[in-house]
Fold this protein.
Amino acid sequence: MKRTTLAAIALAATASLGLTACAGAAGPAETADAGGKTTLSVSVWNYEGTPEFKALFDGYEAAHPDVNIEPVDILADDYPQKVTTMLAGGDTTDVLTMKNVTDYSRYANNGQLQEINSVVDSLDKDNLAGLDAFDLDGKYFAAPYRQDFWLLYYNKDLFKAAGLDEPKNITWDQYAELAKKLTGTAPDGKRVYGTYQHYWRSTVQAIAAAQNDGDLIGGDYSFAKDQYNMTLDLQKSGAMLDFGTAMSQKTSYRSMFETAQTAMMPMGSWYISGIVAAKQAGKTTVDWGLAQLPQKSAGGDTTTFGSPTAFAVNKNAKHSDEAKNFIEWASGAEGAKAIAKIGVVPALQTADVTAEYFKLPGLPTDELSKAAFSPDKTVLEMPVSDKSAATDKILTQEHELVMVGERSIDDGIAEMGKRVKDEVLK
Amino acid sequence: MATDTINPTPLRSQAPGTRRQGNRKQGNRKQARRNTLIGWTFILPNFLGFLAFTLIPVLAAFALAFMEWTSFSAPKWVGLANFERMLGSDSFWVALRNTLLYALGHVPLTLALALILAMLLNRKLKGIGFFRVAIFFPYITSLVAVAVVWNMLFSPDSGPINQFLQFVGVANPPGWTSSSDWAMPAVILTSVWRDMGYYMILYLAGLQAIPTELYEAAEVDGASAWQRFWNVTLPSLRPTTFFVVVMLTVSSFKVFDLIVVMTNGGPGRSTTVLSQLIYQEGIGEGKFGYSSAISLVLFLIVLTVTVLQFKLQQRRER
């Protein structure tokens, strides 16, 4: 009966294959309310590497002993696709983290999220940055707890060595001038660039859109002309690492700044906690400061751009009331302080929260850095629309061609408009 | 392939004396059925996996090509709309052109280099194994590592390749992956370097199957080394070459990972290939119907090219 045994083994192998195939598709564990506690499930990305989640969950659990939060951890790169798939499959995770506003608008318009106007009304609306992005005809389906925006990082030592004042309230013209002055050779013989603009298209296009009221999915990109002119001029003069090298070498903006290869760098506020962590770990000794993002003209309001991150309640949530409670807490003063403690920028911008934020060891304590922390206006990086992803791809491709010098600025801007109109807006 | 087909002798797994003579026919049929069943049981585990993760998705993709589906709502039948959109889309033609360019560069170069290397390494020397392994090594190295290292070599101003070019007197060396004209050649060079070892092994096997009598006879007839190569080696390698060309063509049309890591389709769209377009439109922008339509077209292209190659081969053999 040897053969029967073999067949049995083969069948067993088959069965296990079938089982493993299904095991991958399992959702969050069924929420067993252990010991009278309610288990609230929250979708997150890269739980280990994104400390804000743990800070929020621990804080909430401490304040609400009857709730136990269970993170549903998803790979950061797959997050939007995975959540889309989960929702399509009727997943019952209670709270869904909205990684970007484009996905938010898709889920909300598809009726996959619960309306939470009651929660938003109880929040400090006037000081909650980024809230407008979640307003769909007066209805809110998510509330922001975190708001990243762009500012200017600068290396204090390099400024001192060049005998220059801190870059307070500067215009783009002054920024370009400073960058050229700061370019040169460090005492240790290393090349120092005046500034570094990372190869993302945001470093030119999103800044230009925010400060010129430009519409990134409108199909007319003439508003970006001045910003391109300035950036290409800096590149030509050698005050900035050239785009071709940065892009093909996948240059890390972190190492550019942390190894003092650049004196200035426009970058998002998420990098603050990155520098603090690198300094604490002894990976860098850079003496850094923050300044407002340079502006078109002097003396006006400070306009920057950024993007909020929010929590929403799943339409199929098992614990809707607890989920709303959690969001109210996370977007309120308590949640804001919990993430400010670890260097993440909360959406709630009050004097209290800023004070809490600057208590973090390793943050610059000068007035300019604190002032940089309260921009007058933060524009959404990319408008909320189902056309964002397709437009983003085209703008990135054309941005590359302009930056490597294969298209003139005018041609590049014309081509962007033509392609967006043809391929997206039609 | 240049191997003899082996006719396996059918296994007779009958225990003698278990059956009576009169029932032989029926018994045989029963036996055959049982054997078939056992055979199926053996391939079942693998086949089920193939069914669930390859065959059904492939068939679903063919159906999706005629639908509009964003994964948020139920698929909607739209007939040929996806194909109309594709033919009117600039990006599709750019990607198709890039895919063909890549294949035109990658196939002949890899073929020629693999053959030359195989000829060089097809001799009995001490330590020849080391060289064979060295040439084969890129093929089993992680592709991401290969891409990152070559990106460094190709670095426009500080990369060793351009340093060398400047050293030998090229005033303006190309920008490689940061230039639209040179990004594709850079990708092709990298992929040729990576793949040649594998196809070299195939050619080595082919070379070693050529009977030495042929060479001896040619030498007696006074053929030069070149004539021996042209009239003995190449014709004898024809089956191998055919196989290599088919494999290379199929893999060229499917290229994805190397390009994504090296240039991500840039600068601009200069290295965007079809498989990448499929990924961008489907996974990136959620247009699963449209990207299925593109994959259907890619499938048809590969199928046509392969069938043509088989037809040509048959005609040659006649």
Summary: The mean pLDDT of chain A is 88. Chain A is about 45% helix and 15% strand. Chain A has two domains: 6-148+307-357, 149-304+371-424. The first helix of chain A runs from residue 2 to 23.
